[in-house]
Specification:
Blueprint (H helix, E strand, L loop, with lengths): L1 H43 L6 H17 L2 H15 L2 H18 L9 E6 L6 E8 L12 E7 L7 E7 L4 E2 L4 H9 L14
Antiparallel strand pairs: 1-2, 1-5, 2-3, 3-4
Helix pairs in contact: 1-2
């Protein structure tokens, strides 16, 4: 019974973020479709399928462009500071922002530096991991540097395990962070362009 309960909780943890994200995007697309479709029909006499999707994408691009402006960025930071003072909303916003910064940040701000292979959960079985810090202040009993590695789960890479692994046990892959994420999300169905080197 405990094993079934653990499997149920694990299944929920893996699927809920993806389902909720898909549901929110679908509602957003549908809302824009319902808003724009009558306007297009009144103006041109026909409807355009998928107009809500295009409108949301354009809106996100415009918001991203505005957020890159220094003045707008200062305004956004001001409202972020105000939001962070709200007890529950501030914690939720900060957590979501940190997760997004890890997975969709640019190369200068992204938390993951490189993709490695390591033997996990047992010798002979390999897993993909992301180095999040190259020079941690910790060492193992033999004095070797311990590297901070995030080991994501599939197909939801926003959950996973934090490991401190001796540097000698890590192998380079030649994959970019984006390619590795595609492999993980697809459950291994995606074929990366750069083959992983053998140990």
């Amino acid at each position: 019974m405990r094993r079934i309960r653990r499997w149920l909780l694990t299944g929920l943890a893996v699927t809920l973020p993806t389902v909720i994200t898909g549901w929110v995007l679908w509602k957003l697309f549908s809302a824009f479709d319902a808003l724009l479709d009558p306007l297009v029909q009144a103006r041109f006499g026909f409807s355009i399928p998928g107009l809500g999707f295009v409108a949301v994408v354009v809106l996100l691009v415009v918001i991203g462009a505005l957020a890159s402006n220094l003045v707008v960025a200062r305004v956004i930071r001001f409202f972020e500071r105000l939001l962070n003072r709200v007890p529950l909303a501030g914690r939720i916003y900060l957590g979501v922002k940190q997760i997004l910064g890890v997975f969709v940040g640019d190369r200068q701000t992204a938390s993951f530096q490189s993709v490695v292979r390591l033997e996990y959960p047992r010798p002979g079985v390999w897993a993909l991991g992301f180095i999040s810090r190259e020079a941690p202040p910790l060492t193992d009993a033999g004095g070797e540097d311990l590297v901070n590695v995030f080991l994501p789960t599939s197909p939801n890479p926003t959950s996973g395990f934090f490991l401190m692994v001796p540097r000698s046990q890590l192998r380079p892959t030649g994959l970019s962070v984006e390619e590795a994420l595609k492999v993980i999300v697809s459950g291994g169905a995606y074929a990366p362009s750069a083959p992983a080197p053998r140990p």
